[in-house]
Amino acid sequence: MREVVDFLRLLAEHDDREWFNANKAMYRSADAAFKAFAAEFIEGIASFDDSVHGLSVADCTYRIYRDTRFSADKTPYKKHMGVFVAPHGKKAGYAGYYLHIEPSAECMMYAGLYMPSPVVLRSVREEILDNGQGIVDAIDASNGFTLSLESQMKRTPAGFPRGHKFDYLLRLRDVGVEKIISVKDVIANDFLQRSLDDFRSISPFVKVLNRAVQYAYEEMM
To answer: Which domains can be identified in the chain, with CATH numbers?
Structure first.
């Protein structure tokens, strides 16, 4: 992963088309290295979560090119690479396992749901009412993951009881956990296995969320 980290550091310093086009061979080599890593990563996740069997690298990775049409930031390229392994791929709306490599900012591991649809989010909140302690226990038993509170609402959502023991979970718009990792971790020889061990430890949390997601999808049929 050192090649990936080195390229992303340079891209963060020279985020323009002229530099990128002049260094496209470097990008292609780093991209190939990351995709080779992603293929092993996907296979590793599938070894303990069989709901993601059969996914391809294309199902789980993203383009380096930014969509700047509706953004004030017009820089053309992302400064990170990521892989998100979830049932049926990154666009299917299920909870999954996300690895984010961004040496100019923060590298991290994330597990859970990001921007779920209202129907899915309601189903997850109902799961919290029924099984909040199980969700908390799954997080506490993981290898250092903590609840992400960036999307937390100030008030309890309509239709759910105020003052509930797990109100702080009910107020989440994104339901996930994260673990910050260093660039030193990323370039270590054992990074793949260590990241898989960490994600394995949080897989019970992901599976509970996906039970709620699946229930929501079945209700919509």
So the answer is: 2-220 (3.30.930)
